[in-house]
Structures are given as C-alpha cells and as structure tokens.
Automatic annotation (TrEMBL), chain A:
One of its GO terms (molecular function) is ATP binding. This is Allophanate hydrolase. Coiled coil: none annotated. Keywords: ATP-binding, Hydrolase, Nucleotide-binding. The keyword Transit peptide does not apply. It comes from Bradyrhizobium nitroreducens. It holds the Pfam family CT_C_D. InterPro entries: CT_C_D, Cyclophilin-like_dom_sf, PxpB. Residues 8-207 form the Carboxyltransferase domain.
From TrEMBL, chain B:
Signal peptide: none annotated. The keyword Hydrolase applies. It comes from the Bacteria. Residues 25-301 form the Carboxyltransferase domain. It holds the Pfam family CT_A_B. InterPro entries: CT_A_B (IPR003778), Cyclophilin-like_dom_sf (IPR029000), PxpC (IPR052708). This is Allophanate hydrolase. GO terms for molecular function: ATP binding; hydrolase activity. Keywords: ATP-binding, Hydrolase, Nucleotide-binding.
Length: 243, 345
C-alpha cells in the first residue's frame, strides 16, 4: 500500500463550499497536492461538486448542499487528499515572449538598483527561470507563478499602483506573475507580453491552466508591437512545448 | 418581436442572472443577481426560468417603454412606487405594456435592488452560460456595462397571459446568519465575540463587489496577510484596518485577507438588500442549520410557481401598501457615487 500524507484541514467556507487546506504558507509540495486533488476530482467527479478553484495552498470546492452535506463530502474528499500526488510527467509548457524594460517594464531599472546589478542581469535571471502556474485568480487569466529565482525575491511596493497595463509581467515577494487585464498591482513591473492568457472570442478562452509550466524569452519592442497586433486578432502568440 | 427601450435609468443597473459558474479557477468572477429570490420571483411571474436574465435596477428610478408591440414584464425586490400610464403597479406582480406605454419606477424605499423580468427573458450571447454584466472583465450581453438611457432589448411579443401576482413569504427578520470560518482561527475569542455581538452598518462606499461594514475594529491574531485562497459569495474578510468586508457577487475569485465567517446562502439576498446606515447584527449558526436553510431556500425558489395568484387590482394595492409599510423605510439621502441609498427606519 502506498504511503499516505498528513490529512489537510477542511475549513468551512459557508454552506456551499469547503476549503481543503494543505498548508498555511506558499509551499510547492502543498501546491502539488492541491493540483493533484483537483485533477483527481476532475477525473472521478463526486456528485454534488459544482466547481473547484485551486490556489497556492488549498483547493476551494464549491458544492450543492441539496446534493451532498458537509460531513459526507469531507468523508469523500479526505481519502483522495491524503494520497501522494503522482509524479508530474506531462505538463504543458508555454514559452512566453516578453518585452522587458522601458515603457513596458517601468520598474526594471529600480529592481536592478535595489539588487545591485544590471537590468540585463535581472532579465537573464527572470527569463532563465522555470516556472509553474500555481493558481489563477484576482482577475481573469492572472497567472501566479512559483519558481522565481531566489535572488529576485523582494517585498512588494510600498504603495500599490491603481492601474497597471494588460500583459504586465511582474514579480512580488516570492511570486512571479502574468497579468492579462489592466488592474491595480503592488508588484514590480519588469516587462509586458503580447500574450493574452484570457481572450473572450478565442478558442481556448483561457490559455493557461494551473499546473502548466512556463518559461519566458526576451523580445524587442518592435516585435512586441507585431505580436500584439496578431494576438489582438486572436492568434495565440505563446509557443507551446509538450514536455 | 417587440422591443423594450430603457427610457431612463440610474447608475448601478445592469443585466443580471444566476451568474457565471465554472470559470472561477481562471479568475473569472461569478457576478449574477445580488438578491436571487427577487430575481426568481420576477422571472416566475412572467413564466421564465427562475434565474433567467433580467434587469437589476439600482436604488434610483428607471423607466421602460414598449415599442413595436406589447411587452409583458414583472417587478420584484426592493419596494418602490411603480406605474404604467398613471395606473399604479404593485411590487411582486406582472403587467403588459401596450406598444408605446411606459413603466415608471421610483427610488427604492429601503434596500437597493429591484428586478424587472421580461416575458421570454432577455436575449443575448452567453459566456460561460451567463449574460450577467461583469463590467471589469467586459462581459455581459446584450450590453457589457451598466445600462444607459436609450438601451434597447429585443424581446418576445407579449403572450396575453392574464396578469399575476406572487405571494412571497415574509423575509426572516433578525440577525444575518453566518457560518464561522474558513479562517476564524486567525482571530481570538474576544475578537470573534466582538464580531458576533456588535451592531454593524453598511458603508455607503459599498458596491456589487463588496459591502464594507462599519463598527468596531476586529483585530487579527497573527496579522492580516495570509496566502491568497478562494473566496465565495458572502465571505467576510477582515483587512488590515479591521473593518470587515462582506464579499458580494462581483468579488475577486481569491483574496489574501483572513475570512472570519461566511454569510449563509439563505441570507445573502437579505444582506444585499440592507440599506446603508441601517444597524444589523450577525449570528453564528451551525453548518447543519446553514445547510438545512440552504436546502429550504432552494426548495422555495423551485416552488415559486405555487405562490402565483391572479392579480386582483384593489385588494392587491392595499396589500402592497401594507407591505411597503412593513419595509417602512424613508429615503433620506442617496450617495451619488454608488448605488447605496441612505435610509432611516
């Protein structure tokens, strides 16, 4: 029999949802378990579950209390949640083009200064990273990435900006992100991508899924304009690599 | 086909339905009606599915004119004066507008949201199964934004069905019921008690995204930053300043503040219809009680057609007047920046 892991906490989120919490902190192993539980529930659905929302450390399970009660659902969720996650074999990988610095990444120079290095070095460290989509949230398509190079961990801005552009590529704390729509943000803006992680009349509407792998590559600002036009017309300008 | 034209409308009015489900994992907000029971009642009056798309009217007045034929509509929700060509229309009843006739609705008297359902429902292009407006994400159909004068719905011609009223159960009075959690352990017993034992008022800066609560500051045990996790309709999060926010239908799908409690499904519409400035309390109930109430609430919505009655003018108006008296609020001020009416009991 396979070893089992410590059970997560089942936290009531009202009468129609339960938070399955694996950790209180950002923890890659916990996120692995979150995504594994999410996948397991997608593969063998439990009657009454209406929607699941993976986050860094927990899986929010929405359900219909007319179909299943809190205790009965917990009894079904726990045995699945304590199973060790299967090794990740076939994650999708996206190569995301980024125009770093200048008007597209207004914090690049400040970040370089704060870390006593050059903007080029920051770009190399950011683009050289191997990231995983840990969760998507806040606004449509906003992909939170784990895997940021430790040397780039820095606290968020003292005062968040009320509006940052669509496509912003940024870092905040231990996290990196791909932002789709214009939104407020307290993170450091390193660049912009023409890739739309969310686009209404495109198939698929949402490009990234929790669990996808992500790498970045630098493009010049002229290529950004070209790719941005193509993306606006509905083209997926990210490269997909099947690992 | 007929048309229903928005002749005039205030801010914070939009097309809403049961909401956009299934894409919260991609960060897509659910949206949908703030008061699901009233949406369902209005729809039931005109023979629609309970959560079909209707017009959610904010606290200000509005008027709608039938064009190119007759249009049958119904109203339910926050009480307000309504009339068609000088004839008063009671809340919770249907009416057929003849070609060129206008339905005029006054300011909400207590609460905020009144639902105008149209026979055959509002038609549009669904995204994730919903026409609900989510202005931030540019979603909603036929207009992906709050409604404006001149907007125009293509609708079914009126069927000629006799007019109906619906007898809704008296809404439960008393505290807004919550289930503690998911992060009630981020607060000590004294602060949980402070949350449950204090009087609260809804701030005038509230909106469809969240209701800001005015009352004592709630202190966290370990600070206000937690790692973001999922939110639900009715999550009560406590940010750094200690002033709780009840997350409503346009909430973000995840949030990084501890959530002390969650409003039960059966009471979210009641909270949505609580006027800014009106004092109210919360009460913690067990999960078993909350789920029992949720099941009863779902059953009541399913059985709404059993509550339909033939409209009978005079008796109905008396009843409507006494209903309005029960609600008993006089509008004293309206915050122009938001939809909130400041009311005095």
């Amino acid at each position: 029999m396979a070893a089992t892991l410590p059970p997560p906490r089942l936290l009531p989120s009202g009468d129609s949802a339960v938070t399955v919490e694996f950790s209180r902190t950002i923890d890659d192993d916990a996120n692995q378990r979150v995504l594994a539980l999410d996948k397991a529930l997608a593969a063998s659905p439990i009657d009454g579950i209406t929607e699941t929302v993976p986050t860094y450390r927990s899986l929010l399970v929405h359900y219909d209390p007319c179909k299943i009660g809190f205790d009965a659902l917990g009894d079904k969720l726990l045995p699945i949640a304590i199973q060790p996650p299967p090794p990740v074999t076939k994650a999708r990988r996206w190569r995301i083009p980024v125009a770093y610095g200048g008007e597209h990444g207004i914090d690049l120079e400040d970040v370089a200064k704060a870390l006593s290095t050059t903007p080029d070095d920051i770009v190399a460290r950011h683009a050289g990273g191997d990231y995983k989509v840990a969760m998507i949230g806040f606004t449509p398509g906003w992909s939170y990435l784990s895997g940021l190079d430790k040397s780039l961990h820095m606290s968020r801005r003292q005062s968040p900006r009320l509006l940052t552009p669509a496509g912003t590529i940024s870092i905040g704390g231990v996290q990196a992100g791909i932002q789709c729509l214009a939104a407020p943000s307290g993170w450091h803006l390193l660049g912009r991508t023409p890739v739309r992680t969310y686009q209404l009349h495109r198939n698929p509407t949402f490009l990234t899924e929790p669990g996808d792998r992500v790498t970045f590559f630098a493009i010049d600002h002229k290529s950004f304009e070209e790719l941005d036009r193509a993306a606006e017309a509905g083209e997926i300008v990210a490269e997909q690599v099947n690992a | 086909m007929s048309r229903l034209v928005v002749a005039s409308i205030g801010p914070a009015s939009s097309v809403q339905d049961g909401g956009r489900h299934g894409a919260q994992r991609y960060g897509l907000t659910v949206s949908g009606a703030m008061d699901r029971l009233s949406l369902a009642a209005a729809n039931t009056l005109v023979g629609n599915e309970p959560f079909a798309a209707a017009v959610e009217i904010g606290p200000f007045g509005a008027s709608f004119t039938a064009r190119d034929g007759a249009v049958r509509v119904a109203i339910s929700g926050a009480p307000r004066n309504a009339d068609v060509a000088g004839n008063p229309l009671a809340m919770d009843s249907s009416v057929t507008l003849k070609d060129g006739e206008t339905l005029t609705l006054g300011f909400a008297r207590g609460g905020a949201f009144t639902y105008l359902a149209i026979e055959g429902a509002i038609k549009g292009e669904t995204v994730f199964g919903s026409l609900a407006v989510n202005a931030r994400a540019g979603l909603g159909s036929p207009y992906p934004r709050p409604l404006q004068a001149g907007d125009d719905f293509t609708v079914d011609a009126a069927s000629g069905t006799p007019e109906l009223r619906i007898e809704l159960p008296k809404p439960p009075s008393g505290p807004i019921r919550v289930v503690l959690g998911p992060q009630d352990d981020e607060f000590d017993d004294a602060n949980k008690a402070l949350f449950l034992d204090s009087e609260w008022k809804i701030s005038a800066t509230s909106d469809r995204m969240g209701y800001r609560l005015e009352g004592p500051a709630i202190k966290h045990l370990h600070g206000h930053n937690i790692v973001s996790d999922g939110t639900v309709n009715g999550s009560i999060q406590v940010p750094g300043n200690g002033a709780p926010i009840a997350l409503m239908m346009d909430r973000g799908t995840s949030g990084g503040y501890p959530k002390i409690a969650t409003v039960i499904t059966a009471d979210i519409g009641r909270l949505a219809q609580t006027s800014a400035g009106t004092a109210f309390r919360f009460k913690a109930v067990s999960m078993a009680e909350a789920q029992d109430e949720a099941r009863k609430f779902a059953q009541m919505i399913k059985n709404l057609p059993d509550r339909l009655r033939a409209a009978d003018g005079v008796a109905l108006n008396i009843e409507a007047l006494s209903d309005a008296n029960v609600a008993g609020y006089a509008v004293s001020a309206v915050d122009a920046g938001t939809w909130q009416v400041t009311a005095e009991p």
